Amino acid sequence: MERVFVYGTLKRGERNHALVAGRVQRVVPGYAEGFALYHLPAGGERPYAYPAMVRGEGRVYGEVLFLPGEALPLLDALEEEGEEYRRERILVHTEEGPMEAWAYLYLRDLREALPLPEGVWPP
Question: InterPro entries annotated for this entry (predicted)?
Fold first, then answer.
């Protein structure tokens, strides 16, 4: 079982959650320290708005999804792993205690991005 920290369109109720909804075994709310969150507006190459998490000052709130390992290639494809995002293991603080989880960190330029200092997406 893999743990994946999601903070945007893969959260429950958001547009891309359906990609993994049938595979989710469990969901635990949590946050990651030492990261900054940005809003990437729709336009240009982005057909819809979505967030970007990068290392930095702050805290990002989201959910840890417990998924079977075969879900990772689906997420890698969605996130354009290695091009737009990089999947890395991070520490997530949850009500069950700290746990390691995969997270997708943004790799591209943040010039058009809007900072979200409260660490929550959607803004």
Answer: AIG2-like_dom (IPR009288), GGACT (IPR039126), GGCT-like (IPR013024), GGCT-like_sf (IPR036568)
